[in-house]
Structures are given as structure tokens and as C-alpha cells.
Amino acid sequence: IVLLHALLYIALLPSFNLCLDPEWASYKLGIFICLNCSGIHRNLPEVSRVKSIHLDFWENDLVEFMKTHGNLWAKAKYEAKVPPFYYIPHSKDCLVLKEQWIRAKYEREEFVATSTAIKHPWLPCLGVGCRTVKVQCR
Ligand SMILES: [Zn+2]
Predict the structure, then answer these.
(1) Tens-digit pLDDT profile for residues 40-87
(2) What positions does the domain Arf-GAP occupy (predicted)?
(3) DSSP string covering 61-84, please?
(4) C-alpha 34 to ligand 1 mean position (Å)
(5) pLDDT of the residue at 26
(6) 15 contacts 120 by C-beta, under 8 angstroms
(7) Which domains are assigned to the chain?
(8) Is 104 helix (H, G, I), strand (E, B) or coil?
(9) Cα of 8 to ligand 1 centre, how many Å?
């Protein structure tokens, strides 16, 4: 129970500002995702492993991993080199588009940062600025 609360607390931090209520998480990528995306991530066991926030057991080290990674971190790493006019699917787009995006992003790592030093965007809230950052769970 304590672990569950810790995880939800992490998911609701401003720096995890999500497009949707997170119900699922990829504990291999350290991101929180919605039901639709969890279905896609489930098909990519090489790069992503999915657990339910509410229903699955979360070991302490996995909770720590989630705390030190997260959606902003993944965005900084896996979307570092997205071309300026590349179409990133929105919540209402179909699953096929989302799957193509997720595969390009995590499986083929097409946009990944080449620098080994990824600036960690996981910062405490310092004001209104961080709340304006919208991170998509995809
Ligand atoms: Zn999603």
C-alpha cells in the first residue's frame, strides 16, 4: 500500500505532468502511460515492460527507478532529434499512428539523443513555468 501511494505521488508531480490519468507504467523505460499506449508498449517487450499502477506489485527499486526517470526524462532522451515538422500523434489519433510513433521512438530509437550526457529535466517545481510543460504519455 505504501509503495502504491509513493508511485501515484510520483506520477502526479508537476514534472510528470501527463496528458491523461496514468493507469499504467513502463518500468523498463520509467514512464507513466495510459491504457491505449500500454497495449502498444506490451507488444514491445524488448524495449518496454508494462505494469498496472493499481493492480501490480511494485518492488522498491522499481519505484526508485520511476522516481529518477519519468516522462520528461524519456522525452529529453527519445525525442531529442525529432525533425521540426514531424507529426507526433495526439491522444485522439488512431492506434496505428501511435504504434508507428512508439516504435520509431523507443524500438528504432530514431530520435534519440546522441550525446551521452542527457540533461536531466526532473526538477522540483520552481514556479508556474514547469506546470506549462505538457508531456504526452506516448
Ligand atoms: Zn497514451
Answers:
(1) 999 999 999 999 988 899 998 998 898 888 888 888 889 999 998 999
(2) 21-119
(3) HHHHHHHHS-HHHHHHHHTTT--T
(4) 4
(5) 94
(6) no
(7) 2-132 (1.10.220.150)
(8) helix
(9) 17
